[in-house]
Specification:
mainly alpha; single chain
Amino acid sequence: MNHNEIVTKIIAASFQRANNEIPGFEATPSPELPMFDVPGAILDSLNLITFVFILEDEIKKATGLKVKITTEDVLNNSESPFRSVQGISDFLLRKVRND
């Protein structure tokens, strides 16, 4: 799976679901969209959990892989991959290729 496929098959589908499932979440993915833990972020910590579950489900639908996103290395990382859509897509590319 390449970067473009991650954005179109996983992230776009996740945003579509999040728009329906997370109260107040109304966004379309763009590379620099502030997602979490940065000024102007569209997700708080509780909604991030829901978004992560949605991402994991969409990864499984798109790839057949059960990928756990919230691993210890991610949780202990001072540079969260969830700061922007670009960060999420780069992170997912590494996860899908390694898992």
